[in-house]
Amino acid sequence: MDEILNSGNIPYVSEASVSVEIETEDMTLNIGPQHPSTHGVLRLVAKVDGEKISSVEPVLGYMHRGYEKLAEVRTYPQITTLVNRIDWVSGFANEIPFIAATEKLMEIEAPERAKHIRLILTEMARIASHFVFNGAYALEIGALTPIFLAMEDRERILDLIESVTGGRFHPNFNRIGGIKPAAGSGPTTKKNVQDLPSGFYQETRDAMEKVLEAVERMEDLVGGNEVFKMRTKGVGIISKELAEEYGVSGPILRASGVKFDLRTQTDFLPYDKFEYEIPTGENGDCYDRWYVRLVEMRESAKIILQAIDSMPSGPLQTKVPKVIKVPKGQSYVRTENPKGEMGYYIISEGGLGPYRLKIRTPSFSNISILPVLLEGQLLPDLIAIMGSLDFVLGDVDR
Amino acid sequence: MKMNLSNSPEFVESLTSAFPTLENNFDTLKITVKSSEWVEKVSQLKDEFNLTYFSWLSAIDWENEVSVGDPPKEPVTSHFEIVCCLSDSLEGNLVLISTDIEKEDAKIPSLVKVFAGSNWHEREAYEMFGIEFINHPNLTKMYLPDDYEGNPMLKSFELISREVKPWPGEVDVEGMPDDGAEENS
Amino acid sequence: MIDGSEILVKAGIVLAFALNGAVIFTILDVKGASWMQRRPGPLHVGLRGFIFPLAEIIKFFQKEDITPKNVDTAVFKWAPAYVLASVFGLFVVVPISPTLVGSDLDLGVFYLLAISSLSTLGVLTAGWSSANKYSLMGGIRAAGQLIAYELPLILSVVGVVIQAETMSLVGIVEKQIEWGLPFAISGQGIAFIIFMIAATAEMMRVPFDMPIGESELVSGFLTEYSGVRFLIFYIAEYMNMFIMCAIASTLFLGGYHFPLLPVEWVNFYGPVVLITKTFLLGFILVLVRWSFPRFREDQLQNLAWKILIPLSLLNILITSIMKVVF
Q1: Distance of alpha carbon C173 from its chain centroid, rounded?
Q2: What is the domain range of residue A86?
Q3: Does A227 sit within 8 Å of C207, measured CB to CB?
Q4: Dihedral angle at the C-alpha atoms of C48, C54, C59, C60, nearest 10 degrees?
Q5: Closest to A43 (Cα-Cα) out of A63, A27, A26, A20
Q6: Number of domains in chain A
Q7: What is the pLDDT of residues A252-290, one digit of tens each?
Q8: Touch test B–C: 3 Cβ pairs or more under 8 Å
Q9: A331 and B27: CB-CB below 8 Å?
Q10: A63, A241, A334, B100: which sits with the fewest CB atoms below 10 Å from its CB?
Q11: A145/C133 Cβ within 8 A
């Protein structure tokens, strides 16, 4: 110090320049298996720089139950019990593609009445699943009220499903060749058995009216809110090409502008007898995905109202043998689960159970898009995007 | 009874002319190709036939001695079969394409360059069957814990619960009834 | 000569007032919530639902005192007390009638604004000292938000001070009585709205509860606090809400004055009027809390710096011009 002062060469403060490169490292934040917003036990290892995310790596498998292996040691009727636990929010809709594939291999067709009842229950499952989405998504964005209202409206639908099938979440109602005679209808050996519970039609009509009201209210309360629009418009845009590369399906694909609905592609259930619209979005952002599901609820309610008015009569199940053996063959059937496209690829060697059952679940493909989509987003946007993809861990992990 | 309204006859015809091995059973189109042309044929399907939607990819273990379930009816040579499902998101055409590879040192080129979405599906096939995908960017376990040994979906992999209570196998079977039987289980 | 017993009595009354205010606003918040959400618990169960604050307080007291291992112990333990102390300080100056006030400082407004900004430090240290990345992120967001919204708060009050020509709170109310109209109508309407928005942000309530961010940060800076420590934060938040609404009604709505009632009885009806006005403002805050989603951090900062501050500066400009002209 003295040398500097005595040397006559004192550096002036104004000439000093500070050039310090501060090295920062990204913080690794574990949006861990237990978190209020991951719908189940999904773990995201995120590297964040302040509030910006630099990379995200999902770690799956916390809920892996090994369904495909378990299906190899079960008979075909037993597999429906397994299968409606895949996407537990919409219980009935998981069984439908499996039953479709099995019936195709056996070359039998369910009677008309069974098909109608299957359609009604599938649409009710769709409404129930979308209610959960609407409530939970608003909760993640921060609005604390819509989830209570959504859950209350959902209870009515679950009560209806329970009155027909006996189970709210896991109905296990499909049989190969038709459906089971409904709960609360007496022993099955009698002829002229009453299959749907009495008062079902009127209760369903009331419930659907309330659903239509709830959709209006949700559209106003949540969709018209300025803050909600600010949080979701322009956030997490998925382009059409990205969606197709990764196999994203269902409302997400429709929100990105592709008007593709599997209900129009297969005639396993008689959708072609009813009028309904297929909503699509324009931008593919979170708001569009939310809106598409809201409109789908309304369309499902309309389908149910039409289906009730035109219900044919007849038997509930075609004749099948007591022990079901499916002949040798391979078939793949996919249908429209509320979350997306769900398909079952059955390889049957003529045994009591399938030789190999491959389950194609929608949420697995839907969240494979996360590492690409979330780069460079802010942390609150991560929550908004993940919520709008509407996945369930049972679907992802099987 | 038609199940898939989607596969239009013109599509099936154009596909048959390009792929002679096409089978159409139970409304499911399935093409078998050689494993050396796997990536090339899949790219052909994507570019020429507009099947740009990647649905899933998985594997099947063909084996005669199985520790779970029933063995195949007729004896098969033991091999792996890789199946990939592609579709067209506008028309709804659906095609399964499959190839056979051998079990010893099972390797096949990865489809990641053609369809980015096959990343996770191939990882799952890797950990469940032990198939190695060449040129895959991140071939690590997906569902199972890191120190898990074995490949669960192989037919030789035993289920502990079936050790306790073995698979009942074939029981007495009836044919399709005419009018008599009314009880169904 | 300051009388020791008088100080003690006044302090005791202010303390009682503060705690009761917190409890009353807890009831207002939760009952409002369950009415809007159709939940039966706080509406019907147990004395028409009024028993639940007692249940909550007992629940918090009987919880285990968990201090994680890696925390900075002294800071962790004292942060809640710090926040609570800074909120208590606000109760001293608010008048419930011209003579019933803790201490009628001449610099009343200045004192209020200074003390209320002390809680920022408490929140930031609470987030930093818990050895938890989520708390850290919550604390940082809190620091940014609280500092950003100090300015609109202060600037909106400056307009009132200009119009009232005094900083003492009793003086402001007297000025409103003299003019016959509360300031919210007679020229400070925009300032009133800005003050309410900034106060909501200062309290970290929805729609500004990013630092707590329940569905993202699992309680933000409060994550590691449980039991009595959490209760202290909780009570501090509701006391803050109560006093901010009381201050807003004093500054903008005329405080303890009601137009047609006789002035001699003001010591009796003053408190009632003030608490009613506080309740009304609190109810509006409750409605907003349970209907709106939360802002994202950058949208929040946008709102503060680009919209509220220019508006409040404009308000000061207009007020001073009107003051000089008229």
Answers
A1: 19
A2: 27-397
A3: yes
A4: 130
A5: A63
A6: 1
A7: 888 888 888 888 877 788 888 888 888 888 888 888 889
A8: no
A9: yes
A10: A241
A11: no
Q: Where are the domains of chain B?
A: 9-157
Helix axes C52-61, C228-252, angle to 10 degrees: 140
Residue type, A295: V
A289 touches A255 (CB < 8 A): yes
Measured between alpha carbons, how far is B45 from A272 in angstroms, rounded to an integer?
Answer: 30
ipTM metric: 0.83
* H or E segment and range at residue B11: helix B9-18
Return the residue of B nearest to A323 by Cα. B173
Q: Looking at chain C, which subunits does it touch, using at least 3 CB pairs closer than 8 Å as the criterion?
A: A
The percentage of chain C sitting over the pLDDT mark of 70, rounded to a whole number, equals: 96
B9-157 CATH choice from 3.30.465.10, 3.90.1300.10, 1.20.58.100, 3.30.460.80: 3.30.460.80
Peptide bond into C207 cis (omega under 30): yes
CB contacts, 8 Å: B96 with chain A: 332, 345
Which residues does chain A have within 8 Å of residue B143's beta carbon, measured at their own beta carbons? Answer: 60-61, 64, 397
Residues 51-80 on A with a CB inside 8 Å of C are 51
| Cβ contact A92:A173 at 8 Å | yes
B106: number of Cβ within 10 Å: 19
Q: Find residues 212-271 of chain A whose CB sits inside 8 Å of chain C.
A: 221-222, 225, 227-228, 230-231
Q: Tell me how many residue pairs between chain A and chain C have CB atoms under 8 A apart.
A: 80
Q: What is the rounded average pLDDT of the residues C175-204? A: 82
- Quick check: B82 and B108 in contact, CB under 8 A? yes
Identify whether the C-beta of residue B134 lies closer than 8 Å to the C-beta of residue B110. yes
pLDDT class for C214, splitting at 50, 70, 90? low
> Looking at chain A, which residue has its C-alpha nearest residue C141?
A51
